[in-house]
Design goal:
Elements lengths: L11 E5 L3 E7 L8 E8 L14 E4 L6 E4 L4 H22 L6 E5 L1 H10 L2 H4 L2 E5 L8 H10 L1
Parallel strand pairs: 1-6, 6-7
Antiparallel strand pairs: 1-2, 2-3, 4-5
Helix pairs in contact: 1-2
Length: 150
């Protein structure tokens, strides 16, 4: 059986997906948490179909007349990965300045995996829990219930 998450006062909860991150702080106590949003970051990231050219490029395979298609980059996914890297960098800068001692990281599974790859040891050491859910569009009171009942 898992223990309930106990986040001390002024501990952080960061909720993210590939285009939005909410930074919340526990304004309550360890036993009676009350989350408040103190920062919000967003990124405009249209669907990949809106960011690509009409058709994939082609290249010659040598002296023959045979040509091969070149796959397009997934610009949408690249932007999400960059957002995750930026989030990890922001967390490192804040941890280094001593802005938080404990962190609960809540993110969509693919984003959580990408953020994990980028996290500095100084941030990883402060993570008390990770939740692989996309809660960015939930109201704060619902995020609070989900996080602290996990």
């Amino acid at each position: 059986m898992k223990d309930r998450i106990r986040l001390k006062q002024k501990g952080w909860v960061v909720v993210a997906d590939g285009t939005k991150a909410l930074f919340l702080e526990n304004a309550g106590s360890e036993f009676s948490p009350r989350l408040t949003v103190f920062r919000k970051e967003t990124q405009d990231n249209p669907a990949n179909r809106d960011q690509t050219s009409d058709r994939p490029g082609r290249f010659n395979d040598g002296p023959q007349t045979h040509r091969s298609a070149v796959s397009e980059a997934d610009w949408h996914q690249l932007a999400e990965d960059n957002f995750a890297a930026d989030l990890a960098d922001t967390l490192y800068k804040r941890a280094h300045k001593g802005k938080f001692d404990a962190l609960v990281l809540v993110a969509a599974p693919s984003v959580l995996g990408e953020v994990r790859k980028q996290l500095h040891k100084e941030v990883r050491d402060r993570i008390i829990a990770e939740i692989d859910k996309d809660l960015t569009n939930h109201p704060v009171d619902e995020i609070e219930k989900i996080v602290f009942s996990a």
